[in-house]
Amino acid sequence: MKTILNIIWLVLSGFWLFLGYLLAGVILCVTIIGIPFGIASFRIGLYALWPFGYTTVERRDAGAPSCVGNVLWLVLAGWWLALAHIVTGIAMCLTIIGIPFGVANFKLIPVSLLPLGREIVPTDQPFAAR
Question: Is the pLDDT of residue 61 over 70?
Answer without folding.
Answer: yes
